[in-house]
Amino acid sequence: MRQDIERILIDRETIARRITELGREIVDQLGTIEDDGLILVPIMTGSITFVADLMRELPIRMRIGLVTASSYPGTSTTSQGVDLQGMHLPESLDGRHILIIDDILDSGRTIQRVRSEIEARSPSSIQSCVLLRKKIPSAMETPCEYVGFDIDNEFVVGYGLDFDDYYRNLPDIGVLREEIIRSALADDAS
Ligand code: IMP
Ligand code: MG
């Protein structure tokens, strides 16, 4: 797995330190909402590692409502349009405060789609948190209250992020070698 990684972009210690800070930022904003109010909405599968670490930095009474979305089926490295496969949220969002969690903000379509689906159900508030945001206009212009790191426009894997569903278990975030993407695309085409 390691040999497919060109270089480590953000190592696990740096990720851990930033998540502690993010936790504090979120608690400053949401720590005083009334009991039972907060629902974390992690977008699966990419945010699986991030949400596990982040939630343990949030000493707030909360529930979790999973949403499954995919926009990069198989070996694609550009968004193919958002497919929402399930939203496990309570019937009524009356009086609920929603915090959507995703791994990375790229075209912005995933967060926008999930946010508008939830907005239509009138929760008390709705905010978003991503670990990574690409320094491109589509990502920078998407409303998002909490951002871990702004990164260059490269395809990254690890810490939950995948290529063709692999590499999610890498503890650091790394840039995948070009040849890996190219050979997977060539296999697909043949
Ligand atoms: P968006 O809808 O284009 O903002 O993309 C968000 C989703 O695309 C994320 O939840 C990831 O699953 C996936 N994605 C975007 N960029 C990358 C990347 O560099 N590596 C791995 N997955 C990515
Ligand atoms: Mg994802």
List keywords for this structure.
Rossmann fold, alpha/beta, three-stranded antiparallel β-sheet, 10 strands, binds inosinic acid, 190 residues, 28% helix, seven-stranded mixed β-sheet, binds magnesium ion, globular
Walk me through the topology.
Layout (H helix, E strand, L loop, with lengths): L4 E6 L1 H19 L7 E7 L3 H8 L6 E3 L2 E4 L12 E5 L9 E9 L3 H11 L5 E10 L2 H4 L5 E6 L4 E2 L15 E4 L1 H12 L1
Parallel strand pairs: 2-3, 2-4, 2-6, 6-7, 7-8
Antiparallel strand pairs: 1-10, 4-5, 9-10
The site of inosinic acid has 19 residues, from strand 6, helix 3 and strand 9.
What is the quaternary state of this protein?
single chain
The helical percent reads: 25-40%
Give the structural class: alpha/beta
- Low-pLDDT stretches are none
Give a quick precis of the structure:
The protein has helices at about 10-30, 50-55, 110-120, 135-140, 180-190; strands at about 5-10, 40-45, 60-65, 65-70, 85, 95-105, 125-135, 145-150, 155, 175. It is α/β, with parallel strands linked by helices.
